[in-house]
Amino acid sequence: MNGMKTPLKTLLLILLIFFPLSAGIAQQGIVPFVNNLRIAVRDPEVRLTWTDIPGFENSYGIYRHTTEITGANFPQAVLIDRVGTGVELYIDIPQEMGDYFYAVMALDQANNPFRLFIPMRNVTLVSARITNPPPIEEPPPVPLAETLGRLQVNPRTDGRALEITFTTEGDNRRISIYRSTQPI
Fold first, then answer.
1. Most buried of 8, 32, 45, 149 (most Cβ within 10 A)?
2. Is the preceding peptide bond at 135 cis, omega within 30 degrees of 0?
């Protein structure tokens, strides 16, 4: 009897691999999933490609994790984006060096993922190694006059004091004034 179970399991696995499930089947209680998830790395970009589920009309969630994504660690995976059907391509640019694993999960009407993890179908087995994260672009400096609003410095006529007047053009703006007998 056990000898019959192994060929039946093998046949079911082959059927699942070669015949993707559709959204209509999901409504019948069978979980849909994308096919042929592939990754290609052009540091720092990770290019994900997959084959959509035929007839599926909802969206897909793209998830990233630092370890292979499984049912046990899926809650720690980061949802990096949602895409519609017909996209079949996503480029991720992680901001830090490291190894990253991905999953493309079909989402139900409420944007909850169908939690079925099939290596090389909707989850990656091999990590994408990022060794060259993109540079962090700093915003250009804002001229002091634009930052402060209006700042006016007037020496007093008696020569003992310096009067500083400050008015803002926005909410919650502050100024810090430092005093020193030496250049700061």
1. 32
2. no
Q: Is the pTM of this model over 0.85?
A: no
Q: Does the CA dihedral 108-112-114-120 come out positive or negative?
A: positive
Q: Which tokens in the block code for residue 131?
A: 């060794």
Q: Residue 157 corresponds to which amino acid?
A: T
AA identity, residue 53: I
Amino acid at 86: G
pLDDT < 70: residue spans in the chain: 1-30, 141-178, 184
Name the pairing type of β-strands 89-92 and 98-106. Answer: unpaired
Separation between Cα atoms, residue 46 and residue 129, nearest integer Å: 9
Q: What is the pLDDT of residues 117-149, one digit of tens each?
A: 999 899 999 999 999 888 877 777 656 555 555
Distances (CA, A) of 54 to 26, 99, 106, 176: 12, 31, 12, 62
> Which segments of the chain are extended strands (E)?
35-42, 45-51, 60-65, 78-83, 89-92, 98-106, 128-130, 150-155, 162-167
Burial 18-33 (b: 16+ CB within 10 A, else e): eebbbbeebeeeebbb
Cα dist. 141→144, 147, 178 in Å?
Answer: 9, 10, 21
